[in-house]
Amino acid sequence: xxxxxxxxxxxxxxxxxxxxxxxxxxxxxxxxxxxxxxxxxxxxxxxxxxxxxxxxxxxxxxxxxxxxxxxxxxxxxxxxxxxxxxxxxxxxxxxxxxxxxxxxxxxxxxxxxxxxxxxxxxxxxxxxxxxxxxxxxxxxxxxxxxxxxxxxxxxxxxxxxxxxxxxxxxxxxxxxxxxxxxxxxxxxxxxxxxxxxxxxxxxxxxxxxxxxxxxxxxxxxxxxxxxxxxxxxxxxxxxxxxxxxxxxxxxxxxxxxxxxxxxxxxxxxxxxxxxxxxxxxxxxxxxxxxxxxxxxxxxxxxxxxxxx
Length: 308
Description:
Layout: H1 2-64, H2 71-99, H3 106-138, H4 150-174, H5 196-231, H6 239-268, H7 276-286, H8 292-302
Helix pairs in contact: 1-2, 1-7, 1-8, 2-3, 2-4, 3-4, 3-5, 3-6, 5-6, 6-7, 6-8
Membrane topology: Multi-pass membrane protein
Keywords: G-protein coupled receptor, Membrane, Receptor, Transducer, Transmembrane, Transmembrane helix
GO cellular component, one term: membrane
């Protein structure tokens, strides 16, 4: 009877064991599926950015040769340069996500990884400069802004790139300094955010980006409201209304590509290890800012005389 009872208990526990085993297998399959879906999404995003961004850069180079003394033109010229430097690093990202293997040294991994962050912040600063100039011009605070000599335009560009050249190497040097180096894995520098100064700097940058994005959006909304209030139903026929449409495209890029990442990043920094994969997808979305060249080029066909 005793042996029979033990045997009965053994068989009774068998379904539970099978259930646990099935649960583990299901969990493993789910994780593999999620990892594959993430890699496919990242490869798709970066491939699209590489193709569309490259076409946009080529098209914009021809457009920007028209007036190299305009503040807006110079700002877009610098924007093209930033995109070019970033686009060069994208094939390495595509290769890594396709192979799940990093065959290059860890320093180059840090360079490629940091470039997307440098690109994101420099692009945002240039967007703010362009929008601010246009907003001031609309409110008649400044006249049409042009450089009197080409040397002045060059000096403006040099001042922007001087900051990038100084900040860039410092960022790369300290980027991932406390992370574990790996010759086969890349883009896993989340542990760096556990350092107090790094965490504080990232929070500051994200909060500032969100705040300035809200300010730019509110200013543009105010301008559109004033124009509609002034012209009413005939606003669509006004040249200045269509001039603002390019500002709308820049603000939409900011709100759709940059703000979501920074909002999520504030949440990501509360649980870095668990949200690493999702953060990579949001970070990849910021690279869609490279589409701005195509939007601006398309806008030339709508209203080729709208830019100030």
